[in-house]
Design brief:
Layout: E1 6-10, H1 20-27, E2 35-36, H2 37-40, E3 54-56, E4 61-67, H3 75-85, H4 97-102, H5 107-118, H6 120-140, E5 146-153, H7 161-172, E6 175-176, E7 179-180, E8 187-197, E9 204-212, H8 219-236, E10 239-243
Parallel strand pairs: 4-5, 5-8
Antiparallel strand pairs: 1-9, 1-10, 2-3, 3-4, 6-7, 8-9
Helix pairs in contact: 5-7, 6-7
Length: 251
């Protein structure tokens, strides 16, 4: 069990499209009230407005889908090289970043800096998605619709769930003029297949982690919808589903 999260245990190879993105795009069509926003607005672009991907449940739910398709595997090496060039670090040979930071008095701060550099793609997705769901509410005149950001990670192995979580928390805690900067997203659902876990009795386990955004006013409804999505996603993939009783942690 993943503390504070949800784990779907893969039992059989999916018969649906094989890539994570293709499977998810096929999956959403099975949910109640599915509407594809690009189809709805075909040849009707609204000047200066962005838009999310899907509407559900009589347009009471907006979902924006993002895929982590670029693995920032070069970020750790570049970060260490920057420290060396700035005269803040000297060593000989090959070592892990953890081994390097462990011996430095500011090691914890350097770990945080590196995590944010690796997770910048996540932060960028949050910033863009916040604008998309804000504008989608305006385009369809659905100001009270709940908004969920779904992040898919199929094989960006450098983006460990802990790094994604840290990047999300850093983004959603940002403020502007005393208010949360990204206040249009109510929840985030991370679906990661980049770091499968061997689980007794199953072939593999994949993480499905829900998060609640701090600015949400629809916490209970959003949490319930994300858990429903996680449960249905497991069924869609022919998998068992284990839900944590801890619920979705707040970012």
């Amino acid at each position: 069990m993943v503390k504070g999260g949800i784990k779907a245990n893969q039992m059989t190879a999916p018969t649906q499209p094989t890539t994570l993105r293709a499977r998810f795009e096929a999956f959403v069509k099975t949910l109640e009230g599915f509407e594809d926003i690009d189809t709805l607005l075909k040849n009707q672009d609204v000047a200066g407005k962005k838009r999310a991907d899907y509407l559900f449940q009589n347009r009471s739910i907006i979902v924006e889908q993002k895929s982590l398709e670029i693995d920032p595997a070069d970020k750790p090496q570049k970060f260490i090289e920057q420290l060396i060039n700035e005269g803040k670090l000297m060593f000989w040979g090959t070592r892990s970043t953890e081994a390097i930071f462990r011996k430095m008095p500011n090691g914890d701060e350097l770990r945080k800096q590196l995590s944010l550099k690796i997770g910048k793609i996540v932060s960028d997705n949050v910033e863009y998605a916040d604008k998309q769901v804000r504008d989608t509410r305006e385009i369809f005149n659905i100001p009270r619709a709940s908004c969920i950001l779904v992040i898919l990670n199929e094989d960006a192995s450098t983006l460990f769930p802990g790094i994604v979580t840290y990047a999300l928390k850093n983004s959603f805690q940002k403020r502007r003029d005393g208010e949360y900067r990204y206040r249009n997203i109510d929840g985030v659902l991370l679906i990661s297949e980049a770091h499968p876990v061997e689980t007794p009795g199953f072939q593999k386990s994949f993480l499905i982690q829900p998060y609640m955004a701090p600015a949400t006013e629809n916490g209970a409804a959003v949490s319930a919808y994300m858990e429903m999505m996680a449960n249905r996603w497991a069924q869609f993939n022919g998998a068992a589903f284990i839900s944590s009783s801890a619920g979705a942690p707040k970012l």
